[in-house]
Automatic annotation (TrEMBL):
It holds the Pfam family DegV. This is DegV family protein. Keywords: Lipid-binding. It comes from Saccharothrix algeriensis. InterPro entries: DegV (IPR003797), DegV_C (IPR043168), DegV_domain_contain (IPR050270). GO terms for molecular function: lipid binding.
Length: 288
């Protein structure tokens, strides 16, 4: 079920997102953000991804069980928007994963057409904590009374400026889900090459191929430092069943980046993990 804070002050702008934002539950609750869950299927079982533990998902993937994801039903968005309208908000900003990766924004738009208050659905053309930090920017603006145009501008600015760097042990899971081509999967596995990926034009795209996992992670850290530049940034490290690897990446980034407003370590959502596979680590660089 979606999470929402029904204690929102009447009249303000509410923020909704989907679970691919990878926002820690406590942060979403603190910000008063409603999170609508994507669906994960393991074999014949289909459930909200929040009810599919990553450990269970990882075991299923290693056992080569049939795993898939699906966008939320439009009804989940409809009832979330209805609850917010009943609480007295005057408008809703609904921020979602790239439509090149999921039909989630389409489901949100279908529900928005029936909502009792204006709903502004945004395809952020990204995913993970690049989406998550756009949600944080929007919710922070809404909390201080910004109107809907300013909330939208804050979200779009954050999403447009953020970059997503992704390390995966194998491209096989992305290939199975149709998120990256078979040729790239073959290149990624040749000669122990480990792929680094990014999100470009709303899609998962190859960035670099590096010999060996540790070298690939060091290369990802180097790229993240370059992308951060000399300005203030928010940094997130996301992982799928690789807490020690994520902590090592975070520690190295902490030592090399002098002006970070916010550091965050979080697990990927199960819907994201179903495409990246166990062992994946991502870094989000979000200029302030």
């Amino acid at each position: 079920m979606p999470r929402s804070d029904t204690r929102r002050p009447a009249g303000r702008v509410a923020v909704v997102t989907d679970s691919t934002a990878c926002l820690p539950a406590q942060l979403a609750e603190k910000l008063g953000v409603t999170v609508v869950q994507l669906q994960v299927r393991i074999g014949d079982r289909v459930d909200d991804e929040a009810r599919v533990p990553l450990a269970e998902l990882g075991e299923a993937m290693r056992d080569q069980l049939d795993v898939a994801t699906a966008p939320p039903d439009p009804g989940a968005f409809f009832w979330s928007y209805a609850d917010l309208a009943t609480s007295g908000v005057r408008a809703i900003v609904s921020l979602h994963v790239s439509t090149a990766l999921s039909r989630t924004a389409e489901a949100a738009r279908e529900a928005a057409a029936q909502a009792r208050v204006p709903v502004h659905v945004v395809d952020t053309r990204t995913c993970g904590m690049s989406l998550g930090y756009a949600v944080v920017a929007a919710a922070t603006a809404a909390a201080v009374g910004a109107d809907v145009d300013r909330v939208l501008a804050a979200a779009r600015r954050s999403a447009d400026r953020s970059s997503e760097l992704i390390y995966v042990d194998t491209l096989e899971y992305l290939r199975r889900g149709g998120r990256i081509g078979a040729a790239a999967a073959l290149l990624g596995s040749a000669l122990s090459m480990k792929p680094l990926l990014t999100v470009a034009d709303g899609r998962i795209a190859p960035l670099e191929k590096v010999l060996g996992g540790e070298r690939a992670l060091r290369k990802m850290i180097d790229i993240a430092v370059r992308r951060a530049g000399g300005g203030q940034v928010d940094i997130a490290v996301e992982h799928f069943g690789a807490p020690e690897r994520a902590r090592s990446v975070l520690d190295q980034l902490r030592s090399r980046l002098p002006d970070v407003r916010r550091f965050l370590v979080t697990q990927v959502s199960s819907a994201v993990g179903a495409h990246l596979g166990p062992g994946a680590v991502g870094v989000t660089v979000s200029p302030v």
